[in-house]
């Protein structure tokens, strides 16, 4: 991505909030339950979020046949940018991310070892020339044609990864486990494919929306984030009713509540990947999350 790593924190938060709002309709999408400050003895102050991902009707029919009609996934995330730890209980989807100011040239950015290193499949995602699903395509977000009016970056030509400056890369290790007999392989392949599409679309949008967020501070984007979360929750709750939502709604603006949450007890790098204490660590910019990109 033709952005310096230090600026991406604001762009990432802006993109997630706006993308979640635009992709939410008819009671399906991303609902924020908690957004509050948190602390970790190693990583310091950060932000905790708990989200519900409503997606029953967006799943393939062979998945819908085995789940309840009202179905959502819970994501919990501890964000100490540039470090983030997130997990999705039971379904076991883990994404470890590290951002670096290069074009994807680091061979083992996240420090995999042993079987994980041997078995990994490296997939280069090109935000300009990989095609998104037709239902997600917008000409104004096509980076082959887009040019920023504020930064004058873009359009991105062929071989842009080797000719563009500044440039950063988002390195990710995506692991998925869905242990249901008969459909495990099919489900895990579907999860990997879906996550790739989400990440491709989200990073395209982060760059295409750069003129909207490049002048924002962290305080600005947190205000925007809170506003968009409330609007998104309203769209979800127009079709979904849950008494717990009303009880937790006052926690959405965590900074004003005075409540500080604690991070998981364990933050050992790339170990215990399918537990609530799964984590990553790095000297660079690092994320682990379903919707933290």
Automatic annotation (TrEMBL):
Top-level division of the source organism's lineage: Eukaryota
**Pfam families in UniProt:** IP_trans
- What are the Low complexity biased-composition ranges? 266-293
Gene3D superfamilies hit by this protein: 3.30.530.20
MF terms in GO: phosphatidylinositol binding; phosphatidylinositol transfer activity
* Segments forming domain Phosphatidylinositol transfer protein N-terminal: 3-229
Cellular component terms per the entry's GO annotation: cell periphery; cytoplasm
Region of interest (Disordered), residue spans = 244-293
PANTHER family linked to this entry: CYTOPLASMIC PHOSPHATIDYLINOSITOL TRANSFER PROTEIN 1 (PTHR10658:SF54), PHOSPHATIDYLINOSITOL TRANSFER PROTEIN (PTHR10658)
Q: What is this protein called?
A: Cytoplasmic phosphatidylinositol transfer protein 1-like isoform X2
- State the organism named in the record: Aphis craccivora (Cowpea aphid)
């Amino acid at each position: 991505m033709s952005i310096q790593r230090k600026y991406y924190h604001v762009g990432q938060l802006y993109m997630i909030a706006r993308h979640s709002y635009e992709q939410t309709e008819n009671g399906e999408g991303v609902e924020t339950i908690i957004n509050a400050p948190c602390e970790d003895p190693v990583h310091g102050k950060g932000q905790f979020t708990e989200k519900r991902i409503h997606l029953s009707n967006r799943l393939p029919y062979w998945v819908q046949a085995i789940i309840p009609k009202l179905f959502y996934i819970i994501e919990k995330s501890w964000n100490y940018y540039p470090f983030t730890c997130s997990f999705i209980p039971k379904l076991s989807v883990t994404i470890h991310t590290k951002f670096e100011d290069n074009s994807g040239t680091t061979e083992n950015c996240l420090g995999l070892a042993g079987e994980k290193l041997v078995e990994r499949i490296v997939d280069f995602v090109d935000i300009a020339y990989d095609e998104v699903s037709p239902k997600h395509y917008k000409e104004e977000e096509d980076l082959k044609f887009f040019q920023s009016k504020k930064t004058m970056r873009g359009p991105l030509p062929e071989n842009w990864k080797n000719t563009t400056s500044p440039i950063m890369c988002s390195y990710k290790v995506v692991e998925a486990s869905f242990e249901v007999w008969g459909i495990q392989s099919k489900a895990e392949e579907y999860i990997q494919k879906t996550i790739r599409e989400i990440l491709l679309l989200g990073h395209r949008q982060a760059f295409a929306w750069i003129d909207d967020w490049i002048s924002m501070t962290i305080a600005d984007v947190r205000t925007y984030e809170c506003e968009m979360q409330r609007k998104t929750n309203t769209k979800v709750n127009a079709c979904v009713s849950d008494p717990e939502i009303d009880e937790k709604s006052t926690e959405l603006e965590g900074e004003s509540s005075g409540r500080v949450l604690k991070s998981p007890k364990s933050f050992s790098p790339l170990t215990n990947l399918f537990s609530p204490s799964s984590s990553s660590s790095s000297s660079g910019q690092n994320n682990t999350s379903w919707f933290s990109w």
